[in-house]
Amino acid sequence: MSADSLSAAGPGPALYALDEIVTATGGQARNCAAGPVSAVTIDSREVPADALFVAIRGDRFDGHDFVAQAIAAGAKAALVSQSRADELSGNLPLIVVPDALAGLEVLARHARARADATCVGVTGSVGKTSTKEALRTVLAQHGPTHASIRSFNNHWGVPLMVARMPAGTRFGVFEMGMSAPGEIAPLSRIARPHVAIITAIAPVHLEFFDSVAGIADAKAEIFDGLEPGGLAVLNIDHDYAERLTDAARAVGARVLTYGFAEGADVRIRDHAAQASGNTARLSGDGLDLAISLAAPGRHAVSNGVAALLAARELGIAADDAARTLAGIAPPEGRGAAHRLGPEPRPLVLVDESYNANPASMRAALSVFSHHARGDGRKVLVLADMLELGPQANSMHRDLADAVLAAGPDAVYLVGPHMRALAEALPASIVAGWTHSAHEIAGQVLAALAYGDTVMVKGSNGLKLGALVARIREQF
Which class is 3-100 in CATH? Predict the structure, then answer.
């Protein structure tokens, strides 16, 4: 950074020094004041004081249109693309690079290189966020831990999360998602994990793939950035375990498999499920360990075991990890059960509103089957599972057996594809079908009563979270 591009600034706690960012990105500083940068953000509505605002171009918005707003909100400088820099106000503090998103990726690589951290990458068709959160919680008991927030797992989310990693981090945990081939490999090369977890392979995003095997291959791209001699922790309870194992070994990775199936290196045995959680025993690879999890569902056991095995690889004793896992509740929107209203006869709301695909829908319905009816009714509100391509209607129709096994008294269905499920269910339990959650909300709210147990689940695009909020507000 040249002397004429900077003015002096006072010291303070820093994620970076401003000149460090300029040097790392190879950018040109304009009107910038030297000193600490507290954070990195891409959202002009959430700008910590002295943050770096990165003006990336999204599907609906271009961050360059909000640079002045971000600076006014307290950003120290904005990382901007050369093509838009000259049209911005002449006195705004800017770091100009050929492309802002590429500049963020470069900054992320710098952050990853400067931190003496052991990192884990997590992907899979289902269970990514729950596994990431479980692992983050375990590792945080043993040292400074930095992890992806929410589901910031795409082409801008992963670079942003890695760029936010403090230099003193001991453990890093990064979630990686995709909707098409070729998306995870560059993310893994940025995060450079020492451990790569693949939770499961399921028919998700089939709109963009010819087959589920193609989805497995896309998830296996996480091995592209695996550190030499790194460990692949792989769920064996699906049809593509051998395919993933071969892909991991092809890049020289060590492989550790886990699951309920015979042949897993670490096998889950003696599983017992209740609405409030699970117990099981792990055996193999030097383990003989009883575990208990507060999160409900067979899938929660798999996610917890993946986190335990990754933590063990990072030096955490398995029994220590198991003790922490025992107290972890499900993340928001992923199975948390809320007791609303007066005891002993509350409304029990099971919030599965975050997302849905055929595997997670069946898992959630299985958990719901363990909820006692009590003196009220069991009610389901199910919305479309998106991005399933030409098979969407048949995949929705095929849920009928799992719905019936869950034992509902009433089922409310939302979205065009759920019409196929409505036609496959007995008319006596289909209480309503609409195109949108907004349309069905009034029916659901009018029908619910204290003593009922209701589960709400669907893809995020159907916006069932708003219905969950209204139920919580009413009861």
Answer: alpha beta
- Looking at CATH, the fold of the domain delimited by 115-325 is given as UDP-N-acetylmuramoyl-L-alanine:D-glutamate ligase (3.40.1190)
Is 99 within 8 Å of 84 (Cβ atoms)? no
What is the Cα–Cα distance from 366 to 403, expressed in whole angstroms?
A: 9
Every domain of the chain and the residues it spans: 3-100, 115-325, 336-474
- In angstroms, the CA 124 to CA 111 distance is 25
415 φψ region: left (φ > 0), alpha (ψ -120 to 50), beta (else):
left
From first to last of its 475 residues, the chain has per-residue pLDDT tens of: 333 334 333 334 589 999 999 999 999 999 999 999 999 999 999 999 999 999 998 878 899 999 999 999 999 999 999 999 999 978 999 999 999 999 999 999 999 999 999 999 999 998 899 999 999 999 999 999 999 997 799 999 999 999 999 999 999 999 999 988 999 999 999 999 999 999 999 887 767 788 899 999 999 999 999 999 999 999 999 999 999 999 999 999 999 999 999 999 999 999 988 777 889 999 999 999 999 998 878 888 999 999 999 999 999 999 999 999 998 877 677 778 889 998 888 999 999 888 888 888 998 998 898 887 778 999 999 999 988 888 899 999 999 999 999 999 999 999 999 999 999 999 999 999 999 999 999 999 999 999 999 999 998 888 899 999 999 999 9
Q: Are the C-beta atoms of residues 424 and 402 closer than 8 Å to each other? A: no
Least Cα distance to 380 among 362, 399, 407 occurs for 407
